[in-house]
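Quick review question:
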């Protein structure tokens, strides 16, 4: 009998404590979520602000570099020194060498034509020597002029190539600077857009330490241990000895964890929706399991009380 009373008392204590533990644990799980989210959002916005500032600095530097390269390119195209001067000098030298070569070739042709008189018997030996000497000098002069003209022409070609390469290099540097401006501008726009979106999202969330909306705290529902309800129905009967009054008793259990008044067996459901969505309200996903355990404890306590009352009635 004592063991039975101990078991019943333990079941009742578990039935009373379990719902209170569930309702007190759920707010505790929900308190840390907004604060953690606020800290995370603040860190993200700070990082995005730094990224946007860095992107703006890179863009400004690229714009400044483009301006420098643009001015340098325009100045070089207008007066490509020293390359242009070198080319003009080489060009003048090549033209002069070409003129010297033309004159030497003309003299060589005349000296060669004069050799036709060597067969004239009327020529003296001195005249023959003079014709041959002239031919020899014209030949040597034509060779030298041809070599000089070739060298001058090569120098002119090299100077022209250097001038063109310098102009291409200046234009290439300007193109690189312009590409850098486009790249940094795109990066700056992306960083500014990400920062604006983060700030807009943070503005829609409540500030740390404040509630999104004032809520009225509801006191926890009163928990009443199950008390068997007994109804007395008088029944009269006639025996040989006279009229005998009989009393018929009917036992029942009242629902636990219910607000309000009522008799008989009643069950109130307090959980609705999917348990997988509890994170949206800030509660812990383990809350449904705690509630289920509390319900089982309540049911066990009610069953134990019912059995105890029934046995006590039968013993009486």
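Suggested answer, residue by residue:
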């Amino acid at each position: 009998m004592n063991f039975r009373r101990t078991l019943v008392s333990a079941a009742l204590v578990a039935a009373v404590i379990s719902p209170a533990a569930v309702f007190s644990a759920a707010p505790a799980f929900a308190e840390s979520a907004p604060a953690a989210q606020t800290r995370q959002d603040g860190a993200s916005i700070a990082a995005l602000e730094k990224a946007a500032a860095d992107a703006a600095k890179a863009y400004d530097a690229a714009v400044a570099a483009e301006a420098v390269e643009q001015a340098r390119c325009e100045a070089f195209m207008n007066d490509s020194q020293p390359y242009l001067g070198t080319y003009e000098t080489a060009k003048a030298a090549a033209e002069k060498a070409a003129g010297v070569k033309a004159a030497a070739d003309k003299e060589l042709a005349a000296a060669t034509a004069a050799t036709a008189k060597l067969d004239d018997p009327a020529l003296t030996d001195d005249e023959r020597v003079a014709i041959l000497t002239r031919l020899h000098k014209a030949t040597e002069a034509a060779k030298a002029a041809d070599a000089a003209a070739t060298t001058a022409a090569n120098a002119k070609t090299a100077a022209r190539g250097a001038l063109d390469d310098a102009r291409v290099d200046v234009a290439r540097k300007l193109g690189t600077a312009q590409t850098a401006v486009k790249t940094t501008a795109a990066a700056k726009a992306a960083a500014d857009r990400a920062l604006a979106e983060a700030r807009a999202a943070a503005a829609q969330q409540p500030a740390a330490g404040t509630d999104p909306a004032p809520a009225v705290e509801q006191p926890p529902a009163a928990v009443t241990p199950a008390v068997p309800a007994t109804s007395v129905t008088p029944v009269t009967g006639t025996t040989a000895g006279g009229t005998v009054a009989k009393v018929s008793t009917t036992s029942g259990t009242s629902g636990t964890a219910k607000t309000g008044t009522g008799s008989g067996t009643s069950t109130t459901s307090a959980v609705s929706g999917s348990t997988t969505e509890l994170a949206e309200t800030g509660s812990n996903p383990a809350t449904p399991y705690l509630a289920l355990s509390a319900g089982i404890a309540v049911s066990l306590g009610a069953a134990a009380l019912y059995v105890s009352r029934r046995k006590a009635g039968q013993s009486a």
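Why it works: Confidence is low (pLDDT under 50) at residues 28-33, 222-280. The first strand starts at residue 229 and ends at 239.
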